[in-house]
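Task: fold both queries, return tokens.
Query 1:
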Amino acid sequence: MTRTRTGSPTHRGAPRGGARAGGVLGAAIGVLGEILLTLGALLVLFLVWQLWWTDVVADRDQAQILTQMEQEWGAVDQERVAQPRTDEPPIPPAPQDTMVFGTMHVPAFDRMSVPIAEGVSLEKVLNVKGMGHYPETALPGQVGNFSMAGHRNTYGRPLEQIDRLEAGDPIVVETADAFYVYEVTESLVVTPQDVEVIAETPGQPGVPATERMLTLTACHPMFSAKERYIVHAKFVYWTDRADGIPPALAETEG
């Protein structure tokens, strides 16, 4: 009796080969999915660290700095309001690089006080100490442009609400001996290349200063470094730290 073949060996083997190929593809998709899930989890962790944990650490560290400064300088009598002075203000000694030498108080901000250190290095100043003073710009109370930079988001975000400032709002700088009170004159948005905003005479590089000015700089818009948000302020008076707090801060206490 003659046997009839119902299929060739090649035909019978095709389904098994397709199954193997499908298994490999499924395994590859599974591995890819696991990688994407891992990357997604890492991204979430990075965002939590960047947007939340850096604030937690910076707030803690800056609070410790402020406490240490008050211990070194002595506490200010918060119940006494000092008389504003318009005579020549005392100029603090030039600080060394990364040295904390002052405190900035902005009543219009939810977080009112932040340390000021020399330099604008991210790693050594802005990320760990608070506001950074641009080297070679004026010191507090000095004729010229006392210029500072600060984060608008992350690392304590001292200038998060910089766009809240309006003309006439006070910005108070405290040093070991005095309070220097400036009032906002204008706000503007510029490109990172427009460094003339921190010139001796703001906006006029090469022109000798005739006034005491203050400038704040921060990245703009939020979560971007595409532009810079700038606030200029002019000096209006100073008070002796030993005499109590200046009127600009007494108004916020009340």
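Query 1 returned. Query 2:
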Amino acid sequence: MGRKIIDLSLDIYHSAPTFPLDPKCAVIVHHTVDSMGYNISQLVMSTHQGTHLDAPFHFLDEGKTVEQLDLDKCIGEALLVDLTHKRPKEPITVDDFMPVADRIGEGTRLIYRTDWHKQYPQKHYFSDFPYMTVELARWLAERKIGLIGMDVPTPNPTDFDPVHKILLGAEIVIVEGLARLGDIGAERFFFMAAPLRIAGRDGSPVRALAMLESIGDTGGPL
């Protein structure tokens, strides 16, 4: 009976928190029904606000920009790995993915769940999350996956430069700031995180979605 849609995105609102040095988010009333006959707002924010993706140009001047991304990497079947046992500031390592290593290869859309989104919008959301090691980034790059998604604000808060350069250098799309991955209830699901077509730039907010077969659906596999 159709498909079930799960919204995996954080809200965008006036003064929504960001990393300390990032542009601040502003959602400003520009006109209202009373002033102009319709409501319209001004939106000012980072290309990496909330739930968003990184294009290679984010860390690599020669890397692809948002409008050059292969959207096939951003839309399609994904593999969800449960890492909710990870504690704050605990490393996420290659060993954590060994149980599903045989399903991780070229083009895989890989997403890991820590449930860290529940800490948003508290200040420590941006600093104390379980983090990807440099070694894991290299392991994923060697396997030529297409996308890595996570419910934390960035892969690594301290080694962010080498981790991003390894992943983006391998043209892996990075989707950060996902939410509610626990609502999916399946290891494989259809994932969508299409960016705005921002020409020549480094990233974009996304409306990330999971699409699942509803009970009674006989339409076959996604």
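Both queries returned. Flag for query 2: The chain is about 10% helix and 25% strand.
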